[in-house]
Amino acid sequence: MGITRRRFLTWVGAAAGSQVVVAGRSQAAGNRQFPGFAESFGVLHDVTRCIGCRRCEAACQQVNGLPEPERPFDDLSLLQQQRRTDAGTYTVVNRFEAAQGPVFVKTQCNHCLEPACASACFVKAFQKVPSGAVSYNVDVCVGCRYCMIACPFNIPTYEYDNPFSPSVQKCTLCQPRIEKGLLPGCVLACPKEALTFGQRGQLLQTARNRIAQHPGRYVHHIYGEHEMGGTSWLYISAAPFREIGMREDLGTMAAGQLTAGPLGAVPIVVGLWPVLLTGIWAIGKRKDKIAAGERRQAVAEAEKNARQAAEAKLAGLREQLGKEKEIAVKLAVKNALEEAARAAQAEALPGNGEPESKEEK
Amino acid sequence: MAQPTPVPGKRLLTPFNVVTGCILFVGLALTAMRFIGGLGAVTNLDDNNPWGVWIGFDLLCGVALAAGGYVTSAACYIFGLKRFHSAVRPAILTAFLGYALVVFALHYDVGRPWRLPYPIFVSQGTTSLLFEVGLCVFLYLTVLFIEYSPAALEWLGWRRARNIVVRLTLVLTIFGVVLSTLHQSSLGALFLIAPSKLHPLWYSGYLPIYFFVSSLFAGMSMVIFEGTLAHRYLHGQMDEAHLDESDGVVLAFGKAAAFVMAGYFFIKIIGVAVDDNWAHLATGWGAWFLVELLGFVALPAFAYTLGVRERNRSLIRWTAVWTVIGVMVNRLNVSLVAFNYHLPPAQRYFPSWMEIATSIFIVTLGIVAYRLITSRMPILYEHPDFRHEH
Amino acid sequence: MVLAFVYFAAGSDQMVSGSGRPDWLTLSISTASTPDEMPPVWFAHDRHTDALTGQDCTTCHTKDEGRIRFAFKQAAGEDYHADMAEFHDNCIGCHAKTAMQGEPAGPRAGECRLCHTPNAPDRSAWTAMRFDHSLHARHETSPRIGPTAEADSANCSACHHRYNADTQTLYYEKGTEGACQYCHAPVAAATPDDPARAMRQAAHDGCVSCHLINQTQAAKEANAKFGPITCAGCHDQSMQAQIATVQPLPRFKRNQPDAVLLATRLTNQLAASPEDRAPVSAVAFNHKSHEANVESCRTCHHASLQKCSDCHTPDGSREGAFVGLGQAMHVADRDPSCIGCHQQAQTDAACAGCHSMTPAPDFAATGCQACHGVAADEQTVAVLTDPDARAAMAAAFVKRRGGGAPLPPETDIPEIVTIGTLSDAYEPVRLPHRKIVRALADRIAENTLAKTFHPTSETLCQGCHHNAAALPKPPACASCHGTMTATPSDGRPALLGAYHLQCITCHERMGIEKPAATACTECHPPRSSTASQN
Questions:
Q1: Is C402 left (phi over 0), alpha (psi -120 to 50) or beta?
Q2: Helix and strand tally (H, E) in chain C?
Q3: Is B388 exposed, middle or buried (0-12, 13-18, 19+ CB in 10 A)?
Q4: B107/A146 Cα distance (integer angstroms)
Q5: Cβ contact B243:B234 at 8 Å
Q6: Residue A154, CB half-sphere, CA atoms under 13 Å: how many?
Q7: How confident is the model at residue C84 (pLDDT cuts 50, 70, 90)?
Q8: Which of C346, C349, C354, C344 is nearest to C506 (CA)?
């Protein structure tokens, strides 16, 4: 896939054009960071300027055709409770009590430079497009909700009550409007310019200028400049961000880098495991083979020894038999001779059957 | 010898059948509710807690406990421990059913289940660990099916096909171990992307290694545990070899599990040390972490050791149950308990009874399928026509 | 060295009096070798002084040359166990004795944890005592306090002293008085190297002893006044508020100048070779008016009463913590610097409306010459070496300053300005222009600092009509903020944002609660049919 980067010379002159983008690529290894698309857009939210009028919420509902809320947008008593975005609400303004008094903060998708949702999505439904938005493609979404697990800002929401075509819902940075050269709805509606739309690099400059020109007013931190690898939505505030519901412990590593290690290990496992396992199997086989050979040898040896022993035994037996035979022959000869002698004696003494009592030998 | 298949209609109203019938009926009703009213109708999921017990239990525990398949087949065919041969087929069947049920359960959890093949066939999000899990589970399920098929082919009497498959045994086993290594570890790595949400004691760069290593002893313990159950309830279907070898399997797997658990215990400690999380151990979360690590890893490992040394088979069998519960505790901790630990209690997730009932329904399906298959196919015994052909 | 420490429980200055106690102290015996096995004891001092009415301080404290030493008398601070036994015997013994007499009494033996608790049993409402200009004046003029040194004819020597390291004695020297904390560090204990006791100890031993002596004196006379002798008397916020202030404030008697010509840079430049010279205009500093408007001398003279440039040399020196003179005077976010303090003054509700909108430090409206008004010309150079002439020159410049400026005639100030920008949704806004101008002018007139820095009426206009030349008829807002959308490159808001930022921010900062920021229709009268805004 090729990247065609459109240069937005000025946002006013922006004309829509088709683009094919490979986005949210995590670098599996190496010290490489994606600095964000050049000249991509973002929004600077100056929290000190927000008065909590909820006009951004109203505009958001209008330009995105979201369902009408139960309570109208000019009902500011809603600010008494902490709210979050949901499937029918892309942005909410919350009120916090800080040392400076009440502070209002708008929450919506921060459109990370290297989005956790895009890194986590296994069908590439999320893409960081060059204009700055993190877009969502409902046509491939399976609805696994891993993006919601991954998002450090708890932004994506889900249509839990939709049985057949539930989808993830979140702010789009009004990408369709940007492509037409229009401002995002919330920015256009903000009466106090608490939201400034522009190229992210310039917004950073603006934020730095404001911090420098009003010493003591702002905390010296542009939220979103480095958080989770940077976001297109930037915040400056008088109250410390942790006191106005924003986490300061997210770190600066883009989400893709968090999982780069295990992903990088995949080819290693695929490459080495079969080798190792086959090796183990082969060693086992060889051991079996050697054992079998040794067994055969031992059997042959034993057979040979047995044969020799048997032969020796046989020879001994034969010898013994021979001896016994000889003795028997001798005995038989002797007996025969004696028999013969007795017969001769009996013939020599007729009528007198009594033998001599004594006979010399 | 093969038992004759039970005649249908004969003693249908056994307690087992009644309970199973009730569970299946409730499960079907919940299935209808989920697909008519959406996820919100049956689950307590919300925008802060997108994953619940269907992921934490059905997927994470299901896959971990189905690890007996690759462990046993690897022991038998790669490490050449032939005396486990009789344990391989039940383990493979359990793994196959386990994975099939995991995939089945995912149809409940994801928003558009008919798109589950999308990551593989339509749009490949290769930067995602979930993609790796999906691809590996898909491939491994195929491998398991092929590994299990000889039993079916013997039952069908398709000698030639069966012999071809049997010749592939080694390749399939190696492929199975590779795939298992990858996705068992990836299930842990899934949570690496959310360091800000998972309590530091459970979040670690070693999560994938923890999941892989714990799947080893989870698999071994499951083999012991299933063997125990099969002995108790399916004793009549076993042949001489199976009965003769079963004690050896229990002792050997108990010994191996004790070793692996000892190693696991040490790498968990190393993980705490590497991230310098000692201070967290003194908190309430730390106490719970220690319950998991000491109560469900160190102690069972010791009990296994004792059982092996004293040749006390019933101790080993009980320890297997203990270990299996321990692995479930770990998986639920990572996915539900220690996840979103920073949120106030009101915003935390607790499953609805319907979610739990659905999970029970899916497990029950597995048990029913296991019984159906073992009562018909040569799993717990060797087919008389194919004896001594391995 | 073994010491018995008494820690005062410091409370935050925002403590609301009426909840919590101002008199909590923690008692703990600490030694290097024996750590406390129990948490410290939380001791409510005023509760005990109230309970011991009729007894004097020597019940618990020692007297030394007629002055009370405010450490517990029995704790010699030499042996851990001995001290612990002393505390236990005395405290518990007294509690037991009181209980025997049927009076309510404190915890007794066996009730260890009632005294030894890790946290204060009740919130601490302790508030630091600020010995400000007015309080100083009251002590200075008090007839009860007399001089204690022969060289002194006023009350100064009663408190102010110097230390002779050779004889290790205190002595008084006229004309060298300074703030206590120049020598007495807030909480550091005395060491052989730095024998000055901690401010905390010095203040209690000095002030409270003196108040006690005066109390006995006053008891003999009717309606005579004496200073506080309880913790709450000084450290409770509501009690502090009751201390009468002196009006008008008298000047300090330290021979300080009324006006100073600050010309360190210029003097140094003259020493440089002619081609390296870039003379800096001198500043005529109104010492007198600053004296009257700051809390104490230490506000500016934070380490000593010397000239700033003695430590803060132009290039910085070790004595001045390497803070150069320019930095010391101009750092915008540090309190002791001129500009830092003036910035701080701009956060006052009367000023913040305009000044929170203008970038700081805002030299655009006034330029450097607002302060550096004494040109580096020959006339100035001529007086540099003559102190009297310098002072006279500075005084002359100061005198010319700060008259403020009269407003242009009413007719030149438009009364109502109609803004019709959002007329598709609302009726036009009618801005009460003249009323706003008057309100701002009135606030400037009340304040010397404001008068000095708003030398012309156009300076006032610049609050809203910023970034335009100070003209009698400034250009319309739309001439710069013409687009309805912002251009972030220069940070300039678009018209919608410009109006709302200007009006709403100003109202918020000046504490004007009506109309509320979100009450659109209170400025924009509603139209019968509201069109969409897109």
A1: left
A2: 22, 11
A3: exposed
A4: 15
A5: no
A6: 21
A7: confident
A8: C354
Q: How many whole angstroms separate alpha carbon C422 and alpha carbon C533?
A: 8
**Min Cα separation A215/chain B (Å):** 32
Of B381, B371, B270, B253, nearest to B319 (Cα)? B253
**A194 and chain B: CB distance < 8 Å anywhere?**
no
Query: In A, which residues are within 8 Å of B74 by CB distance?
Result: 277
Task: List the one residue out of C368, C366, C397, C364 whose CA is nearest residue C380.
Answer: C397
Tokens of C35: 């750590």
What residues in C contact A189, CB-CB < 8 Å? 533
Query: What's the pLDDT score for residue C485?
Result: 64
H, E, C per residue of chain B: CCCCCCCCCCCCCCHHHHHHHHHHHHHHHHHHHHHHHCHHHHCCCCCCCCCCHHHHHHHHHHHHHCCHHHHHHHHHHHCCCHHHHHHHHHHHHHHHHHHHHHHHHHHHHCCCHHHCCHHHHCCCCCCCHHHHHHHHHHHHHHHHHHHHHHHHHHHHCCHHHHHHHHHCHHHHHHHHHHHHHHHHHHHHHHHHHCCCCECCCCCCCCHHHHHHHHHHHHHHHHHHHHHHHHHHHCHHHCCHHHHHHHHHHHHHHHHHHHHHHHHHHHHHHHHHHHCCCHHHHHCHHHHHHHHHHHHHHHHHHHHHHHHHHCCCHHHHHHHHHHHHHHHHHHHHHHHHHCECCCCCHHHCCCCCHHHHHHHHHHHHHHHHHHHHHHHHCCCCCCCHHHCCCC
Measured in whole angstroms, the distance separating CA C116 from the mean position of its chain's CA atoms is 36
8 Å CB contact of A270 and B182? yes
Question: In this structure, what DSSP letter does residue C164 have?
Answer: E
- Nearest residue in A to C14, CA atom: A99
| Nearest-neighbour CA in chain A from B4: distance (Å) | 38
Strand partners, C283: C262
Measured CA to CA, the distance from residue C482 to residue C492 in angstroms comes to 10
Residues of B158-178 as b/e, b for ≥16 C-beta within 10 angstroms?
eeeebeebbeebeebbbbbbb
- What pLDDT does C61 receive? 87
SS3 labels along C336-359: CCHHHHHHHHHCCHHHHHHHCCCC
pTM, two decimal places: 0.80
pLDDT-based confidence at A144, cuts 50/70/90?
very high
Q: Counting beta carbons within 10 angstroms of the beta carbon of residue B131, is it exposed (0 to 12), middle (13 to 18) or buried (19 or more)? A: buried
**What percentage of chain B exceeds 70 in pLDDT?**
95
What pLDDT, on a 0 to 100 scale, did the predictor assign at position B232?
78
pLDDT in tens, B272-316: 999 999 999 988 999 999 999 999 999 999 999 999 999 998 999
The 3-class secondary structure across C282-322, one letter per residue, is EEEEEHHHHHHHCCCHHHCCCCCCCCHHHHCCCCCCCCCCC
The residue type found at B128 is S
Question: Per-residue confidence at A354, pLDDT binned at 50, 70, 90?
Answer: low
Closest CA to C124 of C216, C224, C205, C236: C236
CA distance A314 to C280: 134
Q: Tell me, what amino acid is at C88?
A: H
CB contact B378 to A (< 8 Å) = no
pLDDT in tens, B183-229: 999 999 999 999 999 999 999 999 999 999 999 999 999 999 988 88
Instruction: Return mean pLDDT, chain A.
Output: 86
Which of helix, strand or coil describes residue A268?
Answer: helix
- Cα distance from N-terminal residue to C-terminal residue, chain C: 78
- Report CA C324 to chain centroid distance, whole Å: 23
Let me know if chains B and A touch, i.e. at least 3 Cβ pairs under 8 angstroms: yes
Residue A321: Cβ within 10 Å count: 10
